[in-house]
Prior knowledge:
There is one protein chain. By secondary structure, the chain is α+β, with helices and mostly antiparallel strands. The chain has helices spanning 2-17, 40-54, and strands at 61-69, 73-80, 83-90, 95-100. Strands 1-2-3-4 form a 4-stranded antiparallel sheet, covered by helices on one side.
Amino acid sequence: xxxxxxxxxxxxxxxxxxxxxxxxxxxxxxxxxxxxxxxxxxxxxxxxxxxxxxxxxxxxxxxxxxxxxxxxxxxxxxxxxxxxxxxxxxxxxxxxxxxxx
Length: 101
């Protein structure tokens, strides 16, 4: 009887082990990684441009999000003490526009 119980427990463990698979997507295929974010130096350039245009302290302007847009440009959303702005910058670091949201 002990052998039968052992066999039943062992077969149950092996059956459950067969149900586990590692089909998780690779990082480049995850939904949160589908958008290309702006490089850090471009985010900082936008933060500086926003502080200059709106008269704030550049240390309080923080990038909230960024995404690549057409033509090698990036849109960066910035926050400064609850005030949001958006910055459009190209891949060379030329700030194309800074506007309040």
